[in-house]
Design brief:
The chain is an alpha/beta fold. It folds into two domains: 7-105 and 183-276, 3-Layer(aba) Sandwich (Rossmann fold), CATH 3.40.50.300; 113-180, no CATH class. The chain contains eight helices and ten strands. The strands form two sheets. A six-stranded mixed sheet has the order 6-7-8-3-9-10, with helices on both faces. The protein has a four-stranded antiparallel sheet with strand order 2-1-4-5. α6 links the parallel β7 (183-187) and β8 (215-219). α3 (121-131) packs across α4 (136-149). The N and C termini lie far apart (46 Å). The structure holds adenosine-5'-triphosphate and magnesium ion. Adenosine-5'-triphosphate binds at residues 41, 50, 68, 70-76, 221.
């Protein structure tokens, strides 16, 4: 389909299959809710509100991406959902129960490589299960399954320093999934990878997500990544900080790289770009230009 800039102003698709897909998603139970969530830092005159009034419902097995300018509180929101930070107001509910503190039902994958360097790949993946009291032989069997799932079965005895960045993040995903989370929270997990590895990891993650019954909350500042991965995209803003828009991604699944040039993808990206690059007032040039030429240069 040809991209028409006029009809693509609005990213919302009129296609019945898109409406049907979101009707199906909405018919699934809500797994994660935020109710009037607020986060302040500091006290007294130094107090700063990062975001407030954030309310949302995420359905089972949804893939949610979160975008927004640097400092708008994406990581803070992820940490609150993970139970690593506390909200200043409002609450987060997982399966209807208020979240407080970390728990195995919420897995986390960060941008930085967080594997334990003294444990093998398998040891890293087994770690949470063993700590939770599972018999080592059973934990080992499950760890192998997860490593096969992320395509690293052959590396079970390797140490993290022997792996590439992309492989480390695959182990981190296997480790998070091995604990059987209801939701996987990923904060810019591919941010440190080169473009090619990053694209491979995105495709991998979609494959895993199709096979595993898990909901994903994925923070990114990469608009292509958000458009490629998500069911819906949560846009956060600053001044005031909070939810700007919760966008239904009209691009059909399964996703392919050809769709990057399709009308839906481009319309969606355009919408995201409008959020990320707000209109800037261009002042008329009134100031004299600073002359760096020497007298006599006389260049035009
Ligand atoms: N523990 C803290 N104490 C004080 N301020 C904090 C703390 N943690 C975060 N902040 C502030 O909260 C704001 C949001 O930070 P956060 O890391 O959530 O933003 P972000 O959207 O993830 O940014 P980026 O895109 O750069 O990763 C920032 O202004 C940051 O300085
Ligand atoms: Mg962040």
């Amino acid at each position: 389909m040809q991209y028409d800039p006029l009809i693509s102003q609005d990213y919302r698709s009129q296609a019945p299959e898109v409406a049907a897909r979101f009707a199906r998603i909405r018919s699934r139970p809500v797994i994660l809710s935020a109710r009037n969530l607020k986060r302040n830092f500091g006290a007294g005159p130094e107090a700063r509100t990062i975001f407030e009034g954030v309310s949302l419902d995420i359905h089972r097995r949804e893939f949610i991406c979160v975008i927004g300018p640097s400092g708008c509180g994406k990581s803070t929101l992820a940490r609150i959902v993970a139970g690593l930070d506390e909200a200043s107001g409002g609450e987060v509910l997982l399966d209807g129960k208020a979240v407080s503190g970390p728990g195995p039902e919420r897995g986390m994958v960060f941008q930085g490589y967080t594997l334990f360097p003294w444990l093998t790949v398998k040891g890293n993946v087994m770690f949470g299960r063993e700590m939770g009291g599972q018999a080592p032989s059973e934990a080992e069997r499950e760890a192998r399954q997860w490593l096969d799932m992320v395509g690293l079965g052959k590396f079970e005895n390797a140490y993290p320093h022997e792996l590439s960045g992309g492989m480390k993040q695959r182990v981190a995903i296997a480790r998070a999934l091995a604990n059987g989370p209801r939701i996987l929270i990923m904060d810019e997990p591919f941010g440190a990878l080169d473009a090619q590895t990053r694209a491979q990891m995105q495709a991998y993650l979609l494959q895993i997500w199709r096979k595993v019954d898990v909901t994903i909350l994925f923070i990114t500042h990469d608009l292509d990544e958000a458009a490629y991965l998500s069911d819906r995209i949560l846009v956060l803003g600053t001044n005031p900080g909070g939810l700007v828009e919760f966008i239904e991604n009209p691009v059909s699944r399964p996703r392919t790289v050809e769709q990057f040039r399709g009308a839906e993808f481009l319309a969606l990206k355009r919408r995201l770009e409008e959020h990320i690059h707000p209109p800037v007032e261009v002042e008329e040039e009134r100031l004299p230009m600073v002359k760096l030429t020497l007298a006599g240069d006389e260049v035009e």
